[in-house]
Write a structure and sequence with these properties.
Length: 227
């Protein structure tokens, strides 16, 4: 009887582990980072449209970045787990639309995705394989329509300036979590809305409040350039 229940307990533990619940994570949360293409392109470095054509005037994915609660982050965690486009063949057309490369010279995206997987993705390989990693980011992006959150609050990509606190509240109200805004500067030195950070739990599936925010500063009024 007693031996029997011990065996049952062991079986349950094995099942729980196989379902992924006892995998040890080597990071605390993800930053899910989306980028305004107009603000990548109108800087000194400029940009090149992908070989597949000009991306939509919408936020694109930059990355899903494992982070620690103390603000530090791991990178390049497994040089043996190289990016393999064949593993995400079914996601490729969505990735071209939603995770567009803007680097020069023009590319098909594989270079950008390789960088993101190898620098950041490999550090979450204990929970997400390559397909799971890119799919998680695509699913997250569908859940939060940043552009719609902003435009319905009257904040439009029209080259005008908007207050950082209005931008934050518009996003907070729609998304339900506090965003972080990263700014960069256009060629005239104006501070502008570059990237929006949200935090995600270690499964890569659920938005959470950020355990720690990135560093950096925007002006109190920031430009939202067109694209
Ligand atoms: P990371 O290393 O993931 O923090 O991202 C920074 C690198 O990604 C820099 O080299 C950027 O120039 C590059 N980068 C950022 N956005 C894009 C983009 N949309 N397309 C291609 N490269 C990008
Ligand atoms: P500060 O202007 O740095 O004193 O920040 C005033 C408030 O705005 C604080 O609650 C900050 O956390 C917040 N804040 C400042 N910069 C940003 C930003 N780029 N994105 C989101 N919140 C910010």
């Amino acid at each position: 009887m007693k031996a029997n229940s011990t065996v049952t307990l062991i079986k349950i533990l094995v099942l729980v582990c196989l379902s992924g619940l006892c995998v040890s994570q080597d990071f605390d949360f993800f930053y899910f980072v989306q980028q305004w293409p107009g603000s990548y392109c109108d800087t000194k470095q400029s940009c090149c449209y992908p070989t597949t054509g000009k991306p939509a005037a919408d936020f694109g994915i930059h990355g899903l970045w494992p982070n620690y609660r103390d603000g530090k982050y791991p990178q390049n965690c497994d040089s043996k787990n190289l990016f393999d486009p064949d593993k995400i063949a079914d996601l490729r057309s969505s990735m071209q639309k939603k995770w567009p490369t803007l680097a020069c010279p023009s590319g098909n995206g594989v270079g950008f995705w390789t960088h993101e997987w190898e620098k950041h993705g490999t550090c979450s390989e204990s929970v997400l394989d390559q397909h799971g990693y890119f799919q998680a980011a695509l699913v997250l992006q569908k859940q939060v329509n940043l552009l719609q959150a902003l435009t319905s609050a009257g904040i439009n990509p029209d080259g005008r300036s908007y207050s950082l606190s209005n931008i934050k509240s518009a996003l907070q109200e729609t998304v339900g979590f506090t965003p972080w805004i990263e700014c960069n500067t256009d060629t005239s030195g104006n501070s502008q809305l570059y990237q929006i950070y949200l935090c995600v739990d270690t499964t890569g599936k659920n938005l959470i409040e950020c355990p720690v925010f990135p560093k950096g500063k925007c002006g109190s009024q920031i430009e939202f350039p067109s694209f």
